[in-house]
Amino acid sequence: MTERVPIRRLPTGVPGLDDILGGGLPEFSFNLIVGAPGTGKTTLAHQIIFASATRERPGLFFTLMGEPPLKMLRYQQQFNFFDVKKLNESIRFVSMAQEVRTGGLAEVLKRITREVESTSAAMVMVDSFRSIIQAARGGTAGQPDFQDFVHELGIRLTGSEATTFLVGEYQPSENESNPVFTVADGLISLYQTVDRDSMVRKIKIEKMRGQATIPGLHTFRITDGGLQVFPRTIVSPGEEVRPPAAHASGPVRLSTGLDALDEMLGGGVPAGYSVLLAGPSGSGKTLLATEFICSGARGGEPGVIAVFEKRPRENSSSAATELNAFVRDGRVGLIHTRPLDLSIDETLHELTTMIGRLKAKRVVIDSLSGFELALAPTFREDFRESLYRMVTALTSMGVTVLMTAELENRYTDLRFSPHDTAFLTDAIILQRYLELGGQLRRMMTVVKLRGSAHSKDLRLYEIADDGLSVGASLAEYERLLLGDPRPRSTPLTEVP
User: What's the pTM value of the predicted model, to 2 decimals?
Assistant: First the structure.
């Protein structure tokens, strides 16, 4: 039996792209990069060749009827990946405009082959091959058609042990029926859409022979460093996640920072759980979430807090002051962003990167309402599904997640979470307003704590300069959740 020959994979130099490719770019493969104008095709091609080309394994970048090399390089040198030292040493740019205009496809094929053989190029880019099609349509008799040209080019360059990319402008509808795409080993498609004021860019590996890629569309940004891809986290319904840490007496419990609330939770929040803290505006959700993060930092458990509304330093409470001190000394990581074109996967990438750097044990997302508004409109449509993927990915890392959510204080409609997301979490803490003794008071209760006993009390709490304090049970009242509290007429009895 013939031994299996391993395929060497080349790093693309594009953060996140190697992940969705299944580990990198197969060496000696013949690939296409396609997309509409402005999607980032040329930038992606430059980023890949600058990451892979060396003096020993040089790269060739052929330009055809598109931008002249000097004009293209003037713009591309603005990116951080652009290394001037590599020009003419490990990367050569070759204009083929004359061959396209006068010699047709046969002359283009000869010139590319000659340049590759004379330089022993290991990486070849041809931008844009769409212009070759135009030349082929106006060519003379005896010229190969475009499909034969691509087939022959693929054979010659693969035989020369070069990894090749043809770059071209194609609309998504053209990808399905174009016979040229069957010749390629790999096909990478770039897309961009504008929804209201948001620009969303996505990348898809249509195919990559010989390796398993992450399917579907993945969002990406073009930054000073070039393209950055945010791989889509795939979580199947019911997928098992890493179990929380445990000891002989049960799961490890994390303190919320409030002894009375820990008591209501049966000893604290079980490690590795996801917790939803829901309540109306001004009920103290951010304050409690801040206390949760600070409680961990005090005990040597680093945390990460993602803020989509008011920054903690804009709050003058003692808890916010303490949090900012923890941020400065590196015990808490702060992610604060308010753009309107985020994706769930981009946010998850920032969170997991910071969790890994700090070895964080606790994560706070404040709030889901602000988070949803920060997303591009297209991602708000499947917010619940995306949130499920994010929560599962975070808890599978072993961190404990607390999310705040804004609720309207509607007494005729008892809801425990927005967007019908209550089932996504392991625990729910509910905050409400009530009128009692001619005053507007606050109360909280633990609605659920999966797999664990918890208090069923409705308890008053107060917010002061030094933080939040939980008070007495309201067992002597009834109809509290209906907004019509009355002294209890009959004694409260336990359910057998």
Answer: 0.80
